[in-house]
Amino acid sequence: MYETGDLIIYGNEGVCKVDAIGMPDIPVLGKKRLYYTLLPQYQEGKIFTPVDTKIFMRHVITKEKAEELIADIPSVKAEIYENNNMRFLSEHYQSFFDSHECKDLLKLVRDVYLKECDAKERGKKLGQVDEKYMRRAEELLHGELAVALGIPKEDVKEYITKSVEEEN
Predict the structure, then answer these.
(1) Would you state the torsion angle of the CA atoms of residues 133, 43, 59, 163, taken in this order, to the nearest 10 degrees?
(2) Can you give the residue ranges of the CarD-like/TRCF RNAP-interacting domain (predicted)?
(3) pTM metric for this prediction
């Protein structure tokens, strides 16, 4: 069970802070189950979810794990995945989200970035499905890294670039 104040990853919502644990005063939720009240850190609103929900939850990675992940970026092998069937393409990209692991989101971003570079070389644009999944992966990844590193989300990309350049 998480504690009030914990920063967690909740499903594909991203980083949320556990604001309260208890039975919210919302009639439709009933009074028989404990709920987490979660505050998403990068969007408005509150989330009420049962403590025993099946939705994936885990603590945000540590600063050490974040730095390790960033240091490993140059060794992440990027591969271009091509599929003209949008459903199969979406399913392929969704599989990276289903693990809820930063390393998988990083791999997705690297793969789509390589695909984008390849498309530009051929005078083409990246497809909408590719762009959508890359944007979402970056959003989730940068949100968690920002919290882990204690920096603003908008500074994560620059932090990664500097860290990778220093390693090389």
Answers:
(1) 60
(2) 3-54
(3) 0.89
Q: Other C-beta atoms within 10 Å of 101: how many?
A: 15
Instruction: Give the Cα-Cα-Cα angle 44, 50, 51 (nearest 5 degrees).
Output: 105
Q: What is the chain's alpha carbon radius of gyration, rounded to the nearest angstrom?
A: 18
DSSP per-residue string spanning 77-122: -------S-HHHHHHHHHHHHHT--HHHHHHHHHHHHHHHHHHHHT
What tokens appear for 13 in the block?
């919502």
Q: What is the mean pLDDT of each run of 10 residues along the chain (168 residues)?
A: 96 95 76 89 94 95 96 92 92 94 95 93 93 96 97 95 79
Give the C-alpha separation, 61 to 159, whole Å. Answer: 17
Output DSSP code: residue 139. H
How far is it, in rounded angstroms, from Cα 155 to Cα 162?
A: 11
CA nearest neighbour of 34 among 17, 46, 51, 19: 51
